[in-house]
Write a structure and sequence with these properties.
CaH_exchang; 70% helix; ion transport; four-stranded antiparallel sheet; calcium transport; single chain; mainly alpha
Length: 442
Amino acid sequence: FSLSRARTSLFTPERQVAPAPGVLRSILSIVTASWLNLLLVFIPLSWAFNFADKDQHTLIFVFSFLAIIPLAKLLAFATDELSMRVGQTLAGLLNATLVCLFLHLIIALTKCQLTIVQSSLIGSILSNLLLVLGMCFFAGGIKFSEQGFGASATQLNASLLTISVIAVLLPAAFRFSVTTGTTGSDPDAGQDILKFSHGVALILLFIYGSYLFFQLYSHATMYGDDSKDIIKSTKYVPREKRKKGETTTNNVPATDVENGIAPEEQEPEEPEVPQLSLYMTLGLLAVVTVLVAVTAEWLVDSVDGLTESGAITKEFVGIILLPIVGNAAEHVTAVSVSVKDKLTLSLGVAAGSSIQIALFVIPFIVTLGWILDKPLTMLFDPFESIALFLSVLTVNYVVQDGKSNWLEGMILMCLYVILATTFFFYPGSQDTDFANILPKCT
């Protein structure tokens, strides 16, 4: 490993980039980036209600929620344009950090909304693993009888998710072990859990760094579409051929298979065509980030008033609503490419995002809370931790054979709906010692 290689991975694009368009063409690309831009009208509405009447918590939350959806899409659009001009490592970090959810978490952390922070972290993993991955399998399964993906890389991802679940469950097991048989809250136990969380966060960050090195350097071929363990996708067989026992697959020339060469590698690689100039990309990132930060602040501020009536809980807002709006752009991307038989890319978006949240975002936010003197720990709500464990267990069973179909996708989506319904009625942990064991956030 050399310094020049690290510099290449950070700042050298993987593919050649075509000349950037002009200012007018860039502005047109921004305006027509998505039909979701129609929802931008809710930005001034949410701001107006916030300044006019802060007691309209429901309206402020709804309008801010709708306003963040197109902003999330524009932020993803600008991030993709910037990632096109840098190396794989920096592009992955940009996609992990420059998302609406990341900004939500930081704002909620600074306002001591620790329940929202923890619920959003768990909810983001559940959303990617069950809803996004399930939609990918289901959408691809409509066109293909079975779709194949890299089993080795997927099993490694499953192992990484498993260790992250262990890191989430251990603090809860530690808490119940040290407080069993005691009366009241133990301040020493709370401090121990806080210190324990800081240590685990640093270890998870080290694991994530090792995972990046493994994925981008030592075993980069394992994560490509030309990986040797990818099973070929199978199309549906016409009814007349089905009686004869014939199958239809995506054929690859035998000579290419023998030589280990994918058809795409035989053709010269075309340069990527940017839709924005570099200055327009940076400007769009700056403007959208500011808009997201302000709108997300109104959104977070309205949560307490929204949940005071008891019609909706903080757990449901954090677990279900915020992850959906924060990851909306990733949902669309993953599903659209799965229909094109690029399931490896879909898994990279869905499972890869879950790994980034579990091994990078969670420990980073915990470490940031440590720096800001906010007592954010890895002691998550017991019910949320169990839901995460069961979800990871189900996904591990689904992907272990290296292929997918529409029924597996429907199973994952239905499991997400079951969890969403459960969390809608879940009032949060009723164990008072669970909340009082940790230091107060100020």
